Amino acid sequence: MNQIIKESLAKSITYQEYRALVKQLAEENSNTGLEKTEALANYTKLNDRRMKRWDKTVKVTEEAKEKIEAFNRKTTWLIITESWCGDAAHVMPALNKIAELNPNIEVKIVLRDENLELIDMFLTNGGRAIAKVIMLDEQTGEVLNTYGPRPSEATSYVNRFKAKHGVLTPEFKEDLQHWYNKDKGQNIISDVVEILTAVTPIYQ
Could you read off the pLDDT of 78-111 as tens digits, one per residue? Predict the structure, then answer.
């Protein structure tokens, strides 16, 4: 296994530990990461509420559940994130819901700013975008696939806007939040199911 991945795994935390950390930081008016600002602390508070809501409300369809449960390769999902990241707050509860359905999937979480060498191995269009999921074979340490920072439909939506306007405006970011709220984690679930079925063929 790559030494950087190995070192990051050694200091990773569980999803439950991460949720407790974000909750605590929200109460303390703080945030993860190298930069501590009022804006990032406010995003952390907002994300704590978002994750709390999604932890309760994300639903996995029966069809998706069957495919997730059929996945039979022991894997670790190493998720790189920060408490202030809006996309991560929508994506992570859905990922956790999927992992809960299959004992072969273990979720481990690390913070981006404490693991810059790791995120630099998995850049998105040259940027340190999060949340980023590294799917690892538990036995060999091989990187089977990566996922993130956004679900496929949100990525297309962002790319189209960027191509037209150059930068993401505050109004667009608000629209993107509405998209997440409307989608209810379903695009994330279908994306990940597609990845899982590609890793291990599912025989009907």
Answer: 999 999 999 999 999 999 999 999 999 999 999 9
Residues in the chain, overall count: 204
pTM over 0.85: yes
φ and ψ at residue 132, rounded to 5 degrees: -120, 130
Instruction: State in words which class domain 3-199 has.
Output: alpha beta
Query: Contact 98/75 with Cβ under 8 angstroms?
Result: no
HEC readout, 54-119: HHHHCCCCHHHHHHHHHCCCCEEEEEEECCCCHHHHHHHHHHHHHHHCCCCEEEEEEEHHHCHHHH
The torsion angles phi and psi of 125, rounded to 5 degrees, stand at 50, 40
